[in-house]
Structure formats: structure tokens, C-alpha cells
UniProtKB/TrEMBL annotation:
Annotated stretches, region: Disordered: 358-397
Residue ranges constituting the DUF4139 domain according to the UniProt record: 183-305
Keywords: Signal
Signal peptide extent: 1-23
Protein name per Swiss-Prot or TrEMBL: DUF4139 domain-containing protein
Length: 397
């Protein structure tokens, strides 16, 4: 028998694992994967498709498919294979304290209390009477205990055969044969996504720039994805409102492979990454989309508003720098997904300096920026040697 301690939210739950932890006849883990495809969108919803080889027995059975996302959209599950699928469901009882404790309302449980002074532990038998907004209410003998943050008691719950402490897809199926069978599983999930970012470096003559485009991939789904074929979609398909996944700690890594560029339809742009990538839970890494050197650019400075005079001939005004990119073949000629752009300028004496950062720049028309004339805009506070007055808004210098 193995003891596992769970600390979930404000409620500490200790669970005892005894015997089989699921009611499934057959279990499948990530070890059974033979291929894995991820289609990542930038709006928080992504598509996972994986192939597995599973051992089935003849007749009716329940297959438990583990190592799936905890942010899985339950009604998006699709399972195909040489079997008859009768039913399916997504099970994750330990996803929240409320979901876990709901299973034991009205039943006897064990409460434990740890004494820090002596190091000893006290156990009492209790009954879980109810949950009130997530707070458990216990009966201990002839008294009632409220299991809030101030309570010294923590529940210890046995893991039963139909309790799923990790995200699991349950498939009720009928197989005609015994032995290894091919299973294809796909589902939509939150917790996976990507964003584009750009590093633009102006040449000293300010007539050209080098544009470096990156995709930042993130995984907060609760499961590792190893050696996945990844496609990135620029554009936002319609989706129903769902709770946003919880933020998790992230690490940053860099992957320097060039991405192959594809156009699929008029509403979206698809980028197929050339090599399989592993993306661990909680990880964030960058993959290069493309790099173009010497893209023709024109600079335009604008003064916005009348500003405030600090001296008789000096005015403090909001200034903007517009960069007009020649986004046409053979100079660039790419659809540019929306993303943050950082613009640097080469300096002959000191290397380079940051001119500005453009949050979520769209770099052109449409959600992913079409080839043609694209613009980047930086804003800052500047001093000009001229008097302000009526009609001077939007002036150029």
C-alpha cells in the first residue's frame, strides 16, 4: 500500500492508494504513443491528435487512456480504431478539491491532525456532511467541524477503483479480436498556444532592416508532449466561452529551426514546423518562423498633439516613428501573424539601441498581415525646437 499526500488549494487532502486505482479493464499511457500531432492556435484552444497501440481483449471492455491534457474539452473527444465504440467520457476527479470531496459527501472518512510540537499525528473517524462553497463540513462524534483554513483537520480519502486522480479518457468499446490494436485519439484542449514576436534591426543608413520572426510556444496543459509534429495557425476561429486555464510557472528555451510556410484558405495562415518538438508541461520555448535580411523600409516621424512648452522655443510632444515595410516579393512577401515587435537601430559607435516596442503589432491589414505595405509604429516623448499652436496636430518632421 502506498500513501500519497495531496495539497490542493486551501484544503489538504491525504489519499490512500490501495489496489487498482481505476475501474478500467485496460490502461494506456504515453509509452503507447506512436505518433503525435499538435495544431496550436493563438486564442487558447488547440487540437491534439495522437496514435497509440493498445492491447485489447475480445468482447466488451473499458479502455483508460491516460497522459492526456487536464484542460481537455470533454465533448470534443474523437476515438477511432478497429472496434465498436459504445461510450466515452473524460474523468479527472482530483482536478479540484470540490470535485474530489463531492464523491464522499454523506460517507465516513478519516480526519488527521499533525502536531508540530511533538511530531505526532492524531486520527479520528468522521462523516463528511456537506460542502458549502467548497468548504467541507464534518461531523466528529457529537460535534460539527468546519474544514476551513483555520481547521487543524485534513481529510484522508481512499482512492477507489472509480476514482481518477489523473486526467483520463475512458472508452467503452467492443473488440472482436485479441492483441495490439491501433487507436487514434483526438481532442481540443486549453493550456496550449503560441504567439508571434519580431526583432527588427535597422541598418545604419535606415533604408533597410533585418526582420527575425519567432513563435513562442507554451504548454500549461498538465501533460508533456514529446516529439510532436506541430502546426501553428494564425487567425482566431470562433469558439464558445470557456474558463481560462490556470497560469503555471514557465521556462524559456530556444529552438532555431526554420519553419515551412503554407497558406491555407483566406481566413487563416498555417505554419508547419519542420522538425518534431518536445514541449513539457510548464515549458515555454521559441521556434524561428523565418528571417529576412535587407527588407526595404521608409521612416516617417510624426508629432502628435500640441504638447507642453518647457521653454519659449522648445515644446515637449508625443512623437511617433512609422516604419513602412516593403512587404512584397522578393523583399519579404509573407503574411505576418499578429505579434509584438521590437525595433533596434544599428549604431556605428555603440553597437545598437532599442528604438521602441510595438505591442501586438499587426504589421499590416487583417489578423495575420497580408503581403504589401506594412507599418510598424513606435511612440515616445520628444522635444522639438518649434512653437506649438492651433492646427499642429499630427505634424511630421
Amino acid at each position: 500500500m502506498r500513501r500519497t499526500r495531496w495539497g490542493i488549494g486551501a484544503i489538504g487532502v491525504v489519499m490512500l492508494v490501495s489496489g487498482l486505482a481505476t475501474a478500467a479493464d485496460i490502461e494506456s499511457t504515453a509509452v503507447d504513443r506512436v505518433d503525435l500531432d499538435l495544431t496550436l492556435y493563438s486564442n487558447g484552444l488547440s487540437l491534439v491528435r495522437e496514435g497509440r497501440t493498445v492491447e485489447l481483449a475480445p468482447g466488451e471492455q473499458v479502455l483508460a487512456v491516460g497522459d492526456v491534457s487536464r484542460e481537455l474539452v470533454a465533448d470534443s473527444i474523437r476515438a477511432d480504431g478497429p472496434f465498436v465504440l459504445r461510450e466515452q467520457r473524460f474523468a479527472y476527479d482530483a482536478g479540484t478539491p470540490e470535485r474530489l470531496l463531492e464523491r464522499y459527501v454523506g460517507r465516513p472518512i478519516t480526519l488527521i491532525q499533525h502536531h508540530t510540537e511533538t511530531g505526532r499525528t492524531t486520527e479520528v473517524e468522521a462523516q463528511l456532511l456537506a460542502l458549502s462553497n467548497g468548504t467541507p463540513i464534518y461531523r466528529i462524534g457529537d460535534s460539527i467541524e468546519i474544514g476551513d483554513d483555520h481547521s487543524p483537520w485534513r481529510p484522508r480519502l481512499p482512492i477507489e477503483k472509480n476514482t481518477f486522480v489523473t486526467p483520463t479518457v475512458l472508452l467503452g468499446l467492443i473488440s472482436e479480436t485479441r492483441g495490439p490494436q491501433a487507436l487514434e485519439l483526438s481532442y481540443l484542449t486549453g493550456g496550449l498556444g503560441w504567439e508571434a514576436s519580431y526583432n527588427a534591426r535597422l541598418h545604419p543608413d535606415r533604408g533597410r532592416l533585418d526582420l527575425d520572426a519567432w513563435a513562442s510556444l507554451h504548454n500549461r496543459s498538465g501533460v508533456d508532449f514529446e516529439n510532436a509534429t506541430i502546426a501553428l495557425i494564425a487567425g482566431e476561429p470562433y469558439q464558445a466561452a470557456r474558463p481560462m486555464p490556470a497560469m503555471r510557472a514557465e521556462t524559456m528555451r530556444a529552438h532555431s529551426a526554420e519553419a515551412e510556410f503554407h497558406v491555407s484558405g483566406s481566413s487563416y495562415r498555417r505554419y508547419d514546423l519542420p522538425e518534431p518538438i518536445s514541449l513539457a508541461d510548464g515549458e515555454r520555448k521559441q521556434v524561428r518562423l523565418f528571417a529576412n535580411d535587407g527588407v526595404p523600409v521608409q521612416l516617417e516621424y510624426r508629432l502628435i498633439g500640441e504638447g507642453s512648452r518647457s521653454q519659449r522655443t522648445e515644446v515637449r510632444q508625443n512623437a511617433e516613428l512609422w516604419l513602412h515595410l516593403d512587404n512584397s516579393s522578393p523583399n519579404l512577401g509573407r503574411a505576418l501573424p499578429a505579434g509584438i515587435a521590437r525595433i533596434y537601430e544599428a549604431i556605428e559607435t555603440n553597437g545598437e539601441q532599442l528604438l521602441g516596442e510595438v505591442p501586438h503589432s499587426r504589421l499590416g491589414s487583417g489578423p495575420m498581415g497580408k503581403p504589401g505595405r506594412s507599418k510598424l509604429r513606435c511612440s515616445w516623448r520628444a522635444a522639438t525646437n518649434r512653437l506649438s499652436g492651433p492646427g499642429r496636430r499630427g505634424s511630421r518632421i
